[in-house]
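For reference, the entry.
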Amino acid sequence: MAKMKRVVVALPEDILAGIDDILVETKKTRSLFIREACCFYMEKVKKETMRAQMINGYLEMAEINRLLAEEIACDFDCLPSWGPIDEERSHVGESARHDLYARRRKT
């Protein structure tokens, strides 16, 4: 365990009474309770900080993704329109997929 250092903490009587009630049930010392409470609070602050950083990161990425999507949309607008696939061409593609599947099953 790390080296301990004694500190003096001023608490309102009602908070101290609430802590003492908990200590009777848990059979812990005030020192242990305060150490655990400090660790719990530090972990909570760490998680909240990480969450805020992640939210900011996702918001920044959202803007970048929006800009990329707009660029891609412009690229697609420049492509010629192929129109719907007619019946004859759709069967050719289906036949080719069927032949490929049959060849894979044989090997």
